[in-house]
Write a structure and sequence with these properties.
The chain contains 3 helices and 11 strands; from the N terminus they run H-E-E-E-E-E-E-E-E-E-E-H-E-H. By secondary structure, it is mainly β. It has one domain (about 30-180): Jelly Rolls, CATH 2.60.120.10. A 7-stranded antiparallel sheet has the order 8-5-10-3-2-1-11, with helices on one face. The chain is globular and about 40 Å long.
Length: about 180
């Protein structure tokens, strides 16, 4: 059966359940600049680091999707999405604009506008902007619980961006240990 072939790996409990949304799903048409605009807070050791904006397009709080998480992000020139992996969910990245270097489990490839990167669960990935303009990406997760992690690590655009304190950062890492993100300490 196809369903059995696509189920979780044996012995790996899914730590996150599909979110229960307060509102029923609602169809949406969003222009490029529409969505929940947020800026990441830097970890304690990276105070003052330039951070890019990301825009949550669809999740439980935006459109009422109980299943999907979809967002846009611009990675400034020279910056990167640090190496990490998600043990419990696949991810799809779509390069919308710019150019970069994608690394999947140690294999590198140049990417440009229109490229699609499929990242199976347990695959280490990083993406570096190697161009002179922002590397604009769209990304999709099959479970919207990732939005909780992102919201806790960011502020709405226009709000002051303060670095995490060491205690805040350690607490966040503990609450979201199931993501097994490789982040700066």
């Amino acid at each position: 059966m196809l369903v059995a072939a696509c189920s979780s790996k044996p012995g790996r409990a899914e730590p996150m359940a599909t979110s229960r949304c307060d509102a029923p799903p609602a169809s949406r048409i969003l222009e490029a600049n529409e969505g929940e605009r947020r800026v990441r807070r830097p970890p304690p050791t990276a105070a003052g680091r330039a951070l890019g904006l990301f825009v949550i397009k669809v999740d439980c709080q935006n459109g009422g999707s109980p299943d999907l998480f979809f967002a846009y992000e611009d990675i400034p020139p020279g910056l990167q999405i640090r190496p990490h992996h998600h043990p419990h969910m696949d991810e799809i990245l779509i390069i919308r604009q710019g150019s970069g270097l994608a690394t999947l489990s140690g294999r590198e490839a140049r990417v440009t506008a229109g490229a699609t990167i499929y990242i199976p669960r347990d695959t280490t990935v990083s993406l570096r902007n190697t161009g002179a303009e922002p590397l604009s990406i769209a990304w999709v997760f099959p479970n919207n619980s990732y939005g909780d992690y992102l919201r806790e690590g960011s502020v709405k655009e226009g709000e002051p961006v303060t670095p995490f304190t060491a205690d805040e950062y350690a607490g966040r890492r503990a609450r979201f240990a199931w993501l097994q993100m490789i982040e700066p300490q």
